[in-house]
């Protein structure tokens, strides 16, 4: 096989022919709207992939347009020919990662982050403990007062100021168990996938997720051998590592028989529900992945399915819902979160004009492509301000931080708060319907 044939195979060249360049994807693409360049649209990127595979353009020509893609998959929802854009995008990211010239220090840093940091619950706990110490020791106040945070790379100072208050190491240890069950016979046995960043930064939201499942009558188990979903790895072109993480998770959740594998992060859920695409059809791993995927559910789907909660506390709030792109466009979960919100007494839900327009978070996109991400966020915040809510409800940790940052940028932190769906539900004091 020639070098060009190998490259074409890695780029999923055969799948590019499904794109007929009709342009239906253009109005759906956030980067095309904000950057106004054909190369930064889905069909433009696909055409570039095709040109590279045919030897008419270089991998370097492909890099910037591909890396500026959010991966929101909005294009796939309007495509009339069912182009497998996600597979084309991941193939291109893998080729870029392979061909890109990187320094030794850059490679070492990436290897640590992707191979050791994100997949490790110990490192995630350490991140949570360190952030708690930074917040509670007074270091955060000093750093902000003297603007020391401005020396942080990648605009991390912007995200630092919108982080939630984290629990102490002692509280984390006391709260977290591996199995939760109430005396009443369980209505379902579920495995909970807490995620990496979600569990380190939004630990309390994870605990509330467990509590909501318990109040719905479920038995909840956290398999010890589970690890990172692999989404960040796949989005960065590290496909082989992503596959290994998928195998580890499949094995971990096979240890017991579960009705559902529950997550509360749109990005994680989107990766988990596509594990079967990582393996060749007909193989044993593909069959195991299909069995795994069949049980993957967002927390909102399980809560509406069990329908065992009664919300007792009226909240008397005007809120809007910012759906996760990956939850909407990949998982296909759209109605369940809205149904839950509407069950809360006193809530007035004002829908956005363009709810499915990406907020610009997209994993770590808002960190590595900060300025482009802020352009996209500005479009989203114009929509939010148009409905004038006092709260923004999200279903993904990245979206939550991004919306908090958007509110901060608009100077409305004293008027609008951003909250995860499970936190909102717990505010409404849910009780089991059988009480």
TrEMBL record:
Pfam families: CCG, Fer4_8. Its cofactor is [4Fe-4S] cluster. It catalyses: glycolate + A = glyoxylate + AH2; (R)-lactate + A = pyruvate + AH2. Component of a complex that catalyzes the oxidation of glycolate to glyoxylate. Its EC number is 1.1.99.14. Keywords: 4Fe-4S, Electron transport, Iron, Iron-sulfur, Metal-binding, Oxidoreductase, Repeat, Transport. Residues 9-40, 59-83 form the 4Fe-4S ferredoxin-type domain. It comes from the Bacteria. GO terms for molecular function: 4 iron, 4 sulfur cluster binding; D-lactate dehydrogenase activity; glycolate dehydrogenase activity; metal ion binding. It comes from Halobacillus halophilus (strain ATCC 35676 / DSM 2266 / JCM 20832 / KCTC 3685 / LMG 17431 / NBRC 102448 / NCIMB 2269) (Sporosarcina halophila). Binds 2 [4Fe-4S] clusters. PANTHER family: GLYCOLATE OXIDASE IRON-SULFUR SUBUNIT. This is Glycolate oxidase iron-sulfur subunit. InterPro entries: 4Fe4S_Fe-S-bd (IPR017896), 4Fe4S_Fe_S_CS (IPR017900), Cys_rich_dom (IPR004017), Glc_ox_4Fe-4S (IPR012257), Helical_ferredxn (IPR009051).
């Amino acid at each position: 096989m020639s070098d060009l044939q190998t490259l074409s195979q890695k780029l999923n060249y055969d799948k590019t022919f499904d794109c007929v360049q009709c342009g239906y994807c253009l109005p759906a693409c956030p980067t095309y709207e904000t950057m106004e360049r054909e190369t930064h649209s889905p069909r433009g990127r696909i055409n570039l992939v095709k040109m590279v595979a045919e030897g008419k353009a270089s991998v370097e020509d492909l890099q910037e347009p591909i890396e500026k893609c959010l991966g929101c998959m909005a294009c796939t929802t309007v495509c009339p020919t069912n182009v497998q854009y996600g597979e084309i995008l991941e193939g291109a990211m893998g080729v870029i990662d392979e061909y890109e010239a990187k320094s030794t220090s850059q490679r070492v840093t990436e290897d640590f982050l992707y191979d050791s940091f994100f997949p490790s619950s110990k490192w995630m706990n350490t991140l949570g403990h360190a952030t708690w110490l930074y917040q509670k020791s007074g270091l955060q106040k000093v750093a902000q007062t003297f603007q020391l945070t401005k020396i942080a790379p990648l605009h991390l100072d912007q995200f630092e100021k919108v982080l939630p208050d984290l629990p102490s190491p002692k509280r984390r240890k006391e709260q977290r168990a591996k199995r939760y069950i109430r005396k009443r016979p369980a209505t379902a046995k579920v495995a909970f996938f807490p995620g990496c960043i979600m569990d380190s930064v939004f630990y309390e939201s994870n605990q509330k997720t467990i509590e909501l499942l318990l109040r719905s009558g479920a038995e909840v188990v956290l398999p010890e051998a589970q690890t990172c979903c692999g989404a960040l790895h796949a989005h960065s072109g590290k496909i082989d590592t992503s596959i290994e993480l998928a195998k580890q998770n499949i094995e971990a959740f096979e240890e017991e028989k579960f009705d559902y594998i529950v997550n509360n992060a749109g990005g994680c859920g989107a990766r988990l529900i596509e594990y079967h695409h990582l393996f060749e059809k007909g193989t044993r791993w593909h069959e195991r992945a299909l069995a795994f995927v069949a049980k993957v559910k967002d927390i909102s789907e399980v809560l509406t399915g069990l329908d065992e909660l009664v919300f007792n506390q009226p909240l008397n709030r005007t809120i809007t819902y910012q759906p996760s792109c990956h939850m909407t466009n990949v998982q296909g979960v759209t109605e369940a979160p809205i149904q839950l919100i509407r069950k809360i007494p006193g809530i007035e839900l004002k829908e956005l004009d363009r709810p499915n327009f990406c907020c610009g978070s997209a994993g770590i996109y808002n960190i590595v492509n900060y300025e482009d991400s802020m352009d996209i966020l500005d479009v989203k915040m114009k929509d939010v301000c148009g409905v004038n809510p006092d709260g923004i409800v999200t279903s993904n940790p990245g979206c939550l931080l991004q919306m908090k940052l958007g509110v901060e940028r608009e100077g409305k932190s004293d008027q609008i708060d951003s909250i995860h769906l499970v936190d909102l539900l717990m505010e409404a004091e849910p009780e089991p319907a059988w009480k």
